Amino acid sequence: MTSLKDHSVTQNGTGSDRIVISVDAMGGDRGPAAVVAGIARSAHKNPTLDFILHGPMAELQMLVNKRSELSGRCEIRHASGIVSMEDKPSQVMRNGKDTSMWSALESVKNKEATAAVSCGNTGALMALSMIRLRKLPGVNRPAIAILWPSRNPQGFNVMLDVGADIRADAKDLLQYALMGASYARNGLDLKKPRIGLLNVGTEQNKGFPELKEAYDLIEANAERGQFEFVGFVEGGDIPGKRCDVIVTDGFTGNVALKTGEGTAKLIVDQLRESFTQSFFGRLSGLIALPALKRFQKKVDPRRVNGGVFLGLNGTVVKSHGSADETGVSAAVKLAFELANAGFSDRLAARVASADELVQSDTTENRDTKDKSNT
Amino acid sequence: MTSLKDHSVTQNGTGSDRIVISVDAMGGDRGPAAVVAGIARSAHKNPTLDFILHGPMAELQMLVNKRSELSGRCEIRHASGIVSMEDKPSQVMRNGKDTSMWSALESVKNKEATAAVSCGNTGALMALSMIRLRKLPGVNRPAIAILWPSRNPQGFNVMLDVGADIRADAKDLLQYALMGASYARNGLDLKKPRIGLLNVGTEQNKGFPELKEAYDLIEANAERGQFEFVGFVEGGDIPGKRCDVIVTDGFTGNVALKTGEGTAKLIVDQLRESFTQSFFGRLSGLIALPALKRFQKKVDPRRVNGGVFLGLNGTVVKSHGSADETGVSAAVKLAFELANAGFSDRLAARVASADELVQSDTTENRDTKDKSNT
């Protein structure tokens, strides 16, 4: 059995320079072969990276043995059960102890690994993460944050929540702003991220009362939370450059994410089709290939694969269910970068101070509004 | 002054074969020149089309005189006021009597024209349409429906509401389903449109209680409403082929629309960039030009320009504020096709019968559920 015995394991990249990522090998649409191929690619690129891989021992052992990059860097933990895409979160919470997903989270809970990666069922992964890792003190609703291609210099914007919870009140939205700012600082290396609150117009009188309340709360906390609040933003700003972090409830965020993904895929498919419709189309497609590849690489969702669960005691990266080798490797890279930045501890500290802010805000919100940084 | 005196004017294309469209020349980002260019293009393509054009007489007269296609087919109605993009709907309702927008709706109200087209302020246009044309009997909230490029054979799906109102209860969503089905029948020529209700998952237990209530109401009315109900759909189905009409509240619909638009624009811009980055990129771009043009024509938002206001006594098409000649012409074409199909009267009949359905549904909803067509 491959094991980590030769390497010391650390929590956040300080002390030893090795980072351990816990990976759920099962539950993705392409099975464990794609997952092992993905972590092998990551292992090749990042020599300081080690893995604990969870799933059926015999099957995983065979796949891992074929990859020389993983030799001595990938410990396998046997788990016979698999969470399927159809399993209800409540079922998995009750009966999922033998699953690879449960086992993968256990390694983070026990501090053997700094972050977990799974391609499995999102609802089940969030439910298990909540009961195994528990919410950070002061967090009411954890959120899923994704990176979306944008016109900003960093190439991506953060959007949250994209579906951890369908509801969010004003205080939840403030916490999303603080968690999103922390993610943007650590994941996108932005010193003072610009936060926008998603609405149907940029005027202050637009939208639901909860949104206006959230506007005031976020605005009042901008200076102390070390972010800039740009106010209300619209759907077009998600891929835009008006802000770096888009804050919204999980219902709206999920619809926006899937609409954007679906539209992008339709365009790329139609583009491919327009290059195969005729002989000249195919010829020009061949000649245009390098430019098209450059383009595809830039917008390829597999290269920005990974929703991060924020607000838990530990980092969990949800890879797309259909992720292939490239997708899995992108998710592992994201987990590695966040682990390397000590993100989990930084976020915990940020949210703890935010909790105090929210407590005091309920009374002083209106007074401090004028002094805040907008 | 150009006038329509030589042509008889009809309401819906029956009787005489001429269709009159009322056009607000002002309020768009590109000014009246783009509007006049757009209607001239439409006049050239559709010999049965006449216009009443609203705005400052002298300026419009000069623009129209330059277009021989419009000779004898475009009556100008003087209106000195302009609704700007910044004007609040409430202001326009109180003080907007002298505006070209108000005047354009008046021609539909007085049955001189079958449909109105405006590139102006959406909120003001909806507010004025509500007070001047009034809601259809039985309609609680009018909706804005748009066409979105899709993988369906007809090339487009209908989505509503995209922003007439930020709220919608279960009965409103049923009315949107009925109005959307009517629009798809008349605008996309689909005999039995497939309706989907937008949610964050396709399982019946997902989403808010209002959505589950709407699910039951729409399901129970599918057979009598002559549509097929496919159940819950996700953001990815908006450009997909699971259904033809996507029903949602105006907040979610507006965010989805703008996210999709923004993402599509980002992709097209990045594609263009990838063809100009190097000499070979530019060369291959040149060679790939015909295929790229085919592609752009297919996804060009200017060619599907026009949100239709549903649930009013009369058809109003809201063109994009930044519409150029091509965009205005597309909006006029949509208004023409709907007028030609007698859409306004058909929708009114459909909603009137729907009103009865909703009345009876409140009691018999659960009983009829099993018999409905899903």
UniProtKB/TrEMBL annotation, chains A, B:
The keyword Ribonucleoprotein does not apply. One of its GO terms (cellular component) is cytoplasm. Keywords: Acyltransferase, Cytoplasm, Lipid biosynthesis, Lipid metabolism, Phospholipid biosynthesis, Phospholipid metabolism, Transferase. Catalyzes the reversible formation of acyl-phosphate (acyl-PO(4)) from acyl-[acyl-carrier-protein] (acyl-ACP). This enzyme utilizes acyl-ACP as fatty acyl donor, but not acyl-CoA. Homodimer. Probably interacts with PlsY. Belongs to the PlsX family. This is Phosphate acyltransferase. It comes from Pelagimonas varians. The gene is plsX.
